Amino acid sequence: MKIPIPLLISFLFTVNAYTQNLSKKQFEEAKQNLPLEKDQAKKTRLLNRISLYYIMRNESEKDIDSASFFNSQSFDIANELGLKNSIAASMLIDGQIANRRKDKELAAKLKNRALNYAYENGCKSQEAEIYKDMAYDFAPEDLVSKKKYILKALSLFREAANTNGEADTYFDLAGIYKDIGEYDSCFNYLQQCIKIKKSIKIYDLYKEYTMLTQYYWKTGNVKDALEYALRADTIAEEVNGEPIWRSLIYNLLAMIYSELNITDRSLTSYKNAIVMAKKSKNEHYVETIQINAAIDFYNRKKFAEAQEILNEVKERPANDCNVRYVSLRIVLYCHLKKYDKARPYYEQLLKCDKVVSKKSSKPCILQ
């Protein structure tokens, strides 16, 4: 029996860039400069940025404890000297820490308190940052509220003449419009972001070029997609970019090379993507790219290699409905003539079909 299998290569989700984050190199430099910094205002900013690095990394509870430790120092200095901008920034960080500790109620209360403080004290850039952060607390489907908050942040950054903040907010807007499939708006906001950053001599544009790659790929322009993916890769390598973004870039390159039938580069890019995804400690990225790579090997009739990569995927529960994973297991075992191993996955797929039918014909979750 021939089974129709949807072996579509998955497109990794966009990383939300809702706070300005330090690179690892900048983080190390900040920690080195901290004991030497005599200017207390600058010291509070350094402490805030170090706190944000730990929050965004969030590899363990220890990171969040470290964020709290450095943020408390910043708040104490800022409070003593009446540094309102730093106080507002620390108040937002307290909300982010509560969020990371999964206390949503406390996080919301702290962020609203920070928002009121920033508004009452005329801290427009900090008020904008708080609006941006709060935009991503809304449910993913609540795009109206999310866009409202991001646009409010954009207006505040303009009032504060904060061009860097304005550019980053255009990037956020581009991401929102990309996710809902409004690619022209996505492209326009990206262009505004890049134009501003270049005007203020910021050329670390690998995230922007990555999103442009996604835009060109989604709109069927493979040539430009490849050009911007290569640009993003070059910059990310030069600045030692975040592993999660580098995994996304390599995944895109692999998909593009596969489309262009440049097999060796496609498979090499998938392997690099897996390395970076593991480095980022993002299990969803690791699994998605592993399955993508296994699919590419399968399509090239390299069945043993596909099975080898698929075996690295963390085994899913028997009632799981990841159609890409289950389907690939079936066809691989069949090609390897291991029908006894294929049968449980086939039975699992049939159960998934029944579950889907009971749920108003909704498709199985593709991750």
Describe this structure in words.
With 367 residues, the protein is an all-alpha fold. Among the domains are: 117 residues; 53 residues, no CATH class. The protein is 73% helix and 0% strand. It has 17 helices and no strands. Helix 8 runs parallel beside helix 10. It is elongated, with a radius of gyration of 23 Å. The N terminus and C terminus are likely disordered.
In a few lines, what is going on in this structure?
With 367 residues, the protein is mainly α.
Question: What features would you highlight for this structure?
Answer:
367 residues; mainly alpha; elongated; disordered N terminus; disordered C terminus
The radius of gyration is 23 Å
The coarse overall form would be: elongated
Q: What quaternary form is this?
A: single chain
Strand content: under 5%
Number of strands: 0
**Secondary-structure element series:** HHHHHHHHHHHHHHHHH
- Number of contiguous helices: 17
Give the biggest beta sheet.
Answer: none
- Distance linking N and C termini: 27 Å
Helix content: over 70%
Helical/strand content category: mainly alpha
Summarize model confidence as the mean pLDDT: 87
| Unreliable residue stretches | 1-19, 355-367
Give a topology summary.
Elements: H1 24-33, H2 40-57, H3 61-81, H4 84-100, H5 104-120, H6 124-135, H7 143-159, H8 163-179, H9 183-199, H10 206-218, H11 222-238, H12 243-259, H13 263-280, H14 283-299, H15 303-310, H16 323-335, H17 339-358
